[in-house]
Please model this.
Amino acid sequence: MSLKQLIANIKPLDETAMRSARARQDMLTKPAGSLGRLESLSIQIAGITANASPHLEHKVIVVMAGDHGVTAEGVSAYPSEVTPQMVMNFIHGGAAINVLARHVGARVTIVDMGLAIPLPAMPGFVSRRVASGTGNIAKGPAMTRAQAMESILSGAEIVTAEIAQGLDILGTGDMGIGNTTPSAAIACALAGFAPAEIVGRGTGVDDAGLYKKISAVERALKMNQPDARDGLDVLTKVGGFEIGGLAGAMIAAAANRKPVMVDGFISTAAAMLAVSLAPGCWNYLIAAHRSQERGHQAMLDWLKLAPLIDLDLRLGEGSGAALGLSLADAACKILNEMATFGEAGVSEKG
Model:
């Protein structure tokens, strides 16, 4: 399916389902509004799914991985070979995302969107390689426009396949040494932020490393001149294959009435791209958490998304999204399983 067709399939939230969910929330055995964001979250999910009693049985976290040429500028505390090493850790179930996914009962799918070194086929691992890593954005474009579109459509196809296996809510995750740099560049390009406002320490670079990152983003923006009015151009000029894949995944989820639990800094950059390409998908996004990464709050503000939690996370992988999935599940269970005043024989407010 083309990107244009996917965007055309994104519908507004279902107002009838939301009214029914809101009415039930007001009848549950509690003071109205006393469960705060859990109430509004359940109503949003009802609108997304067009179901006044949504159930999130099949929780899926898609972790997209890719390498970045900009690591040559010294923007990361870790070498680029850590990307495939961590992907292997994901596949073997030993990373934080695996532990948290097991904790919340989520399925994890790992996708190679553009590792510098390809990995063999393994269960739970999907190869949708666009190329062997992106170009160095400080010296030229990250990819071609055709590759940018390929990354988006590949991400959409991954989610479509996951829906066929059973997917009620999507959690987004990433892996890519150096990918906070293109993510910051995307945010600056789309929202007009100054790099010093957005660029953070990522994997934990020192002051010299932070300066290199800011400089790399400044040079990327000056060299490539990404067009803020064209999300595909921004992805082409300063993005990453896994970031494009995540944007496509979000658009496909919205086109299929599935809620999207957005992880941290990288996933939020992908969400900015997704909204710039398909404004209608905004209603389907839920911000899992506020990252410790500098600039994340400004990106959330631009998206007008309020994070569910703030635990000073800055790992990525979908770790915050996994915790967010648990809250979304809890919100829907409150809506569906809690007794109303009438059912419980409890007197209502006088």
